[in-house]
Amino acid sequence: MSAGTEEFVDVVTVTPLNGYRVRLGWADGPASTVDCEPFLVGEVGERVRDPAVLAGVQVDPDAGTLVWTATGLDISPVALRRAGQLEPAEASPPTAAGS
What does 4-17 look like in DSSP terms, one character per residue? Predict the structure, then answer.
């Protein structure tokens, strides 16, 4: 499956990385690294640019996507899937923030 797919697949895991990047695990098995910076627009998005707020990213299990509960910002799983390059689940993740 390519990164340009319109298929709705739930995000099941998230790991914050350096900058605005996150490592996502998908319900159908692959993983991807996504730069969230393009999604951080407007008043709510600007608040997520604060590193302390950004690090609070979680998976919303009901919506199957990312959410920052401190701001209410969430990002469509379809948009996230489109923004990242899919990799097999066993691929080595990029270096995590602070490593």
Answer: T------EEEEEEB
Res 93: pLDDT: 55
Per 3-state DSSP, the chain is made up of helix, strand and coil in percentages (nearest 5) of 20, 30, 45
* Angle at CA of residue 66, ends 95 and 5, nearest 5°: 85
pTM, rounded to two decimals? 0.81
* Cβ atoms 8, 86 nearer than 8 A: no
Query: Consecutive 10-residue runs of the chain (99 residues): their mean pLDDT?
Result: 65 96 96 96 95 95 94 95 86 53
- Backbone φ, ψ for residue 17 (5° rounding): -120, -160
Query: From CA 67, how far away is CA 56, in angstroms rounded?
Result: 9
